Amino acid sequence: MSGALAFETHSAEAIPAAERHARPLDLFRLLFGGCNTFATSVLGSFPVFVGLSVQDGLWALLLGLLAGSCALAPMSLFGPRNGTNDPVSSTAHFGVYGRLIGSGQLLLTAIVFFSLAVWSSGDALVGGAHALAGLPVNALTQSAAYTLMAAIVVAICIYGFQLMLWFNRVAVLATTLLFGVALMAFGSQIDLSYAGSVQRGDAGWWAAFVATATVAASNPLSFSATLGDWGRYVPLATPRRRLMAAVLLAQAATLLPLLFGLFTAAIMATTAPEVVATGDYMGGLIAISPAWFLLPLCLIALIGGIATGTTALYGTGLDLANLFTRHLNRARATLMVGLLAVAVIFVGRFVLNLVESVAAFAALIGAFSCPWLAVMVIGYWARRGHYLPDELQALSRRVRGGQYWFSRGWNLRALAAWTVGSTVGLLFAQVPGKFTGPLSAWAGGMDLSAPTSLLSGATVYLLLLWGYPESDQVQGPLGHGLRRHQDPRPQNRLPRHD
User: Region labeled Disordered — which residues (predicted)?
Assistant: First the structure.
């Protein structure tokens, strides 16, 4: 593949070394481009909408962003190491069939965040056009905006990695400049002393602070199963510190749209408090925007929404093609997932009114993705980065047995850790108006789903690896650091496929 318009023919099979031309800078661009939009600004507005002051909201956003970024950074190592996406790499830790856990998370996350990107950007486009040129706001104009956004995103994803990378290179520069203009538009109104409605020492302050940190952490954590989609084009010899630095810097750069959301939400709370009561951030932003900013607002919505949508949707198409190699290629699989996501957009927006429910569901994804991420990162450390890339493709080749077959295709250690972590996370979940875990009241109403699922899943996996070590064959020549005894059981190697 060469050039931005080279059609991608690979799915999730290992990318040949000769075709790995991406750099850590490209990883930065894709990650930042996927976040540099109004969807992230909506997350940044959350602390004001739950009553925090600007200063407390800023600390909560910083804490959550730092925690989520540090958890995400090691996931950048799998793509260059194995030349494939993260669900396929998870075969080494979850088993040949256990990799379906990662595939399921990838599919659900793609649909949810693609839908949210199209909804928020489509509504911003229609609202901006209404204020700028009097375009009516109704089901017809909203449907047209959603269709336009979805069609562009699906087309880019079908064409493949190079076109998506080229678009995000442009999008990062364009939306960063536009957000700079946006801060200028509201600079004189920004009030860093905004006190909020919930003060330190109040009963609900900690719940609001932790909820904000959790929302901020969910932004980087939503990429936990997708980094390999892009990292598989990065050469194996790339230093690990550069890969993780690209992830950390990309997430640090998302402070731009996060802070824009925080500052503009504080302006809304002062000048249009009814917006805070309804939670309609985009409607409030359009209402307080000066007339000259409406065009830049529409451009951010269009460019940023496309960038976010492509990074959300792209990976699940190539993963689905890898699962059904006999029936689907990557382009057809991407089109299928795109059509499903478009159906969710229209049914949820106009029939079942599922917009808020999907947003709440997106928050619960953390309870499932955090223990999966913990198993992957701990597994990488325990194996000292040793993998057998050819045997990771066992499920797509319909071959039973091999080093990663474990117990009938499942690694019960990883499965137990993920199950316990997800369950504990749900018990501590707190999604107002949608779902309340039975242990959230014990935690003072705080949403501790992400940290508890991460810590419990990691603890269980570490204990199981220590008490019941994996076979030496999967560990490689360096062995692993949690060895209590040696497993003498023989393992059958997977047949080679040339």
Answer: 477-498
Crossing angle of helices 161-186 and 255-271, in 10° steps, is 40
Residues 417-426 as b or e (16 or more Cβ within 10 Å = b)? bbebbbbbbb
End-to-end CA distance of the chain: 21
Confidence of residue 358 (pLDDT cuts 50, 70, 90): low
Instruction: List the alpha helices (DSSP H) in 232-354.
Output: 240-253, 255-271, 273-278, 281-288, 294-323, 330-346
* CB within 8 Å of 147: residues ≥ 6 apart: 342
CA distance 275 to 287: 9
Sign of CA dihedral 377, 378, 384, 386: negative
Asked whether the predicted pLDDT for residue 377 surpasses 50, the reply is yes
User: Would you call 347 helix, strand, or coil by DSSP?
Assistant: helix
For helices 294-323 and 281-288, angle between their N-to-C axes, nearest 10 degrees: 150
Q: Percent of the chain at pLDDT above 90? A: 37
The token pair at 233 is 């084009």
Q: Nearest to residue 367, comparing CAs of 457, 470, 441?
A: 457
Task: Say how far apart CA 419 and CA 404 lie, in whole Å.
Answer: 19
Task: Dump pLDDT digits (tens) for 430-467.
Answer: 766 667 788 877 777 777 888 899 999 999 999 999 88
Pair 204, 20: CB distance under 8 Å: no
Q: Is 166 exposed, middle or buried (0-12, 13-18, 19+ CB in 10 A)?
A: middle
What is the token pair recorded at 59?
A: 């600390």
Q: Can you point out the beta strands (E) in 81-214?
A: none
- Distance CA(124)–CA(117), nearest Å, equals 11
Inter-axis angle of helices 330-346 and 139-159, nearest 10:
160
Closest CA to 301 of 471, 161, 132: 132
Range 143-147 contact pairs with CB under 8 angstroms and sequence separation of 24 or more: 143/346, 143/350, 145/121, 146/118, 146/119, 146/122, 146/342, 146/345, 146/346, 146/349, 147/342
Furthest CA-CA distance within the chain? 75
Residue owning tokens 């925090």: 52
Q: How many Å apart are CA 285 and CA 233, to the nearest integer? A: 38
- Cα torsion angle, 388, 391, 395, 401, sign: negative
- For residue 482, the model assigns a pLDDT of 61
The contacts of residue 327 (CB under 8 Å, 6+ apart) are none
Cα 202 to Cα 313: distance, rounded to the nearest angstrom: 41
Whole-angstrom Cα distance, residue 119 to residue 125? Answer: 10
